């Protein structure tokens, strides 16, 4: 079994993104497989400086260690590189193959023409989709377009009739009418592939066997299955996990108390508590077990227990869970965890005194910095 976490470096990782990583990690560990980290940085316009480092930091803090990735090649060394911007020549080779086999074609339509096309479709109350103008250009028309100096994109030649069936572990066979799909772009004019092409090629060449990703990608599944069919490759098993919503059943955001993963570290949450909390947002062992060690999660995780309905984020439950983990910590371990917070507030802390205080205050701590308000007076000099 080989699973992968393939984030885009567009900022600090959010909860939904990291939950996907956790599920793929747990599945690989459950069955003694490999967990691969791949950086998908082909969308250069959304690239954020420091985004890769933030991803590394979040995964390491949570203890989601990977077996192969940008800093760690596989034992046979044939799957890398693991950063997509370092694989551009590979994508071009496979795009050329699709063109040669009549599964794709060059499109010379300008952004202005495409914008006008979409506006006309909207005026007619039609769904926006490419109209196929460049799908069957004659050699003469193609030569004329080449001479105009326009840098083309490459579009996949989607079948005009019939259905494409995408298999999902949670939902079974999901059928899509090809007539509702357009000829989607697989190579952009800047020479970078789109997600659709790059992810299919990489998953195949990296021998990914299982992909757990958010259900927002389910509408893209037929595009990916069409590309697999065009290459004659078997797709991995896909499981599209339900999304995480706020208590008001809208898209999760900061107004619901959700933060980036690294913000939780700065607020004094424990990584094991956050891992436990995230695992239960869309998966469950049963209808009552809530506190689960990492070992217990690995022992019991499987895709057949993923829940089809959206998970509801509950900030108070995460805070409660963090307090539960803090109360279970050995005194020496908790003292080491809270000491930096105390020293930031009062200066040097006597270790012996701190070890005496922890058993007295441990029940009252829900976040690590709570120690300051609860116990700083023990370390302040008197008047």
**What is the beta-strand fraction?**
5-15%
Rg from alpha-carbon coordinates: 25 Å
Number of β-strand runs: 11
Query: How would a crystallographer describe the biggest sheet?
Result: 3 strands, antiparallel
Side by side, the strands of the main sheet go 3-4-7
Structural class: alpha/beta
Uncertain runs: none
Provide the residue-averaged pLDDT.
92
Task: Give your account of this protein's structure.
There is one protein chain. The chain is an alpha/beta fold. Helix content is 40%, strand content 12%. It has helices at residues 15-30, 51-62, 88-100, 111-123, 139-147, 195-205, 221-231, 261-267, 271-279, 294-300, 315-328, 331-346, 351-361, 370-375; strands spanning 2-5, 34-37, 104-107, 153-156, 163-168, 172-177, 185-187, 210-214, 237-241, 244-245, 311-312. The strands form 5 sheets. The chain has a 3-stranded antiparallel β-sheet. A two-stranded parallel ribbon has the order 1-2. Strands 5-6 form a two-stranded antiparallel sheet.
How is the secondary structure organized here?
Layout: E1 2-5, H1 15-30, E2 34-37, H2 51-62, H3 88-100, E3 104-107, H4 111-123, H5 139-147, E4 153-156, E5 163-168, E6 172-177, E7 185-187, H6 195-205, E8 210-214, H7 221-231, E9 237-241, E10 244-245, H8 261-267, H9 271-279, H10 294-300, E11 311-312, H11 315-328, H12 331-346, H13 351-361, H14 370-375
Parallel strand pairs: 1-2, 8-9, 10-11
Antiparallel strand pairs: 3-4, 4-7, 5-6
Helix pairs in contact: 1-10, 6-7, 9-11, 12-13
């Amino acid at each position: 079994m080989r699973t992968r976490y393939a984030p885009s470096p567009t900022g600090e990782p959010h909860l939904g993104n990291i939950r996907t990583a956790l599920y793929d990690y747990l599945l690989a560990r459950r069955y003694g497989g490999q967990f691969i980290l791949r950086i998908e940085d082909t969308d250069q316009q959304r690239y954020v400086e420091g985004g890769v480092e933030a991803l590394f930091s979040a995964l390491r803090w949570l203890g989601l260690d990977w077996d192969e990735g940008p800093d760690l090649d596989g034992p046979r060394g044939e799957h890398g590189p693991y950063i997509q911007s370092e694989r551009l020549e590979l994508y071009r080779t496979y795009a050329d193959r699709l063109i040669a086999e009549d599964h794709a074609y060059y499109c010379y339509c300008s952004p202005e023409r495409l914008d006008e096309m979409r506006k006309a479709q909207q005026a007619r109350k039609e769904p926006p989709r490419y109209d196929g103008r460049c799908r069957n250009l004659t050699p003469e028309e193609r030569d004329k377009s080449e001479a105009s100096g326009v840098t083309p994109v490459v579009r996949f030649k989607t079948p005009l009739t019939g259905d494409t069936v995408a298999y999902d572990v949670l939902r079974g066979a999901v059928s899509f009418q090809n007539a509702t799909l357009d000829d989607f772009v697989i190579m952009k004019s800047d020479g970078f592939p789109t997600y659709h092409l790059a992810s299919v090629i990489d998953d195949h060449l990296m021998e990914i066997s299982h992909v757990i990703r958010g259900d927002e990608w389910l509408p893209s599944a037929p595009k990916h299955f069409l590309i697999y069919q065009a290459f004659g490759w078997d797709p991995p098993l896909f499981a599209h996990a339900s999304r995480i919503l706020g208590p008001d059943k809208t898209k999760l955001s900061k107004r619901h108390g959700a933060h980036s993963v690294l913000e939780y570290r700065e607020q004094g949450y424990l990584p094991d508590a956050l891992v436990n909390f995230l695992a239960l947002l869309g998966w469950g062992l049963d209808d009552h077990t809530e506190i689960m060690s990492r070992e217990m999660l690995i022992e019991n995780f499987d895709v057949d227990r993923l829940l089809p309905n959206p998970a509801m984020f509950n900030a108070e439950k995460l805070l409660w869970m963090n307090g539960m983990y803090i109360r279970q910590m050995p005194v020496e371990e908790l003292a080491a965890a809270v000491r930096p917070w105390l020293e930031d507030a009062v200066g040097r802390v006597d270790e012996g005194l701190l070890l005496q205080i922890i058993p007295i205050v441990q029940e009252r701590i829900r976040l690590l910095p709570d120690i300051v308000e609860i116990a700083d007076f023990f370390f302040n000099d008197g008047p």
